[in-house]
Amino acid sequence: MIQHFSFKPLYENTQLPGWAISFYYKQQYYNAEYKKDGGIKWLGITPDANEKEAVEKMVHELMLFHVYD
User: Fold this and answer.
1) For position 2, what pLDDT does the model report?
2) What is the count of structural domains for the chain?
């Protein structure tokens, strides 16, 4: 489960899509950029290959809830 999820716009003009996201997953801190097309650019540590798809799905769900709702 993702904990302490936070996001903020990448650009001062909040009309431009793109967000800086950060969160903890299994006691590991992750930070990334969430692109307008739903792509995630990981900055630093990337989730393990066998968990990456599940983590990205959770991030998409959180972004849908917080940003696109």
Assistant:
1) 95
2) 1
